[in-house]
């Protein structure tokens, strides 16, 4: 019987479909209620499956949550990986800002899932934060410091620059309800790209 890890035999089309349904439903439930507030019954209902059927594919709520986070982490790091050391410094950083904002626009539930995990102390992804994420950030910080030393960007604290990019872009996903309540009929992502580019251009220009 499947145990939430890779099955010994290749999955049938129906098995893969049901796993996808469960993960999609879980993303909706977890991003809305957080890990603690979510239940297997809610996920099963959202997926249109019985709870016993769900448990055939995943043995626990934590197994589903861990699977979602595992796939999310790799996608979450891709925009930073694309920042090229040999490119124009300001162009590369602004492009990173644009990519992060686009992630918030296209994947708001994933952003909220990630934020909820961090708020809870990151019990399921702390190793990844201290390992893969930190290694990548350290690598890009070295690039930012090199650009600073060459006079290509202004003197900025590289780690806090990255934190600022994260907070200003992910805010649009994590606080979507608040943003839309304040803006009313205005679409947040119509003006946000130009505004953020202007902010970071001012910060980065030597």
Automatic annotation (TrEMBL):
Domain of life of the organism encoding this protein: Bacteria
InterPro entries xrefs: Homeodomain-like_sf (IPR009057), HTH-type_TetR-like_transc_reg (IPR050109), HTH_TetR (IPR001647), Tet_transcr_reg_TetR-rel_C_sf (IPR036271), Tscrpt_reg_YcdC_C (IPR013573)
Keyword DNA-binding in record: yes
HTH tetR-type domain mapped to chain residues: 16-76
GO molecular-function terms, A-Z: DNA-binding transcription factor activity; transcription cis-regulatory region binding
GO BP term (any one): negative regulation of DNA-templated transcription
Signal peptide: none
Keywords associated with the record: DNA-binding
Short name of any one Pfam family annotated for the protein: TetR_C_3
DNA-binding residues: 39-58
SUPFAM superfamilies registered for this protein in UniProt: Homeodomain-like (SSF46689), Tetracyclin repressor-like, C-terminal domain (SSF48498)
Keyword Ribosomal protein applies: no
Cross-referenced PANTHER family: HTH-TYPE TRANSCRIPTIONAL REGULATOR RUTR
Protein name, per record: Transcriptional regulator, TetR family
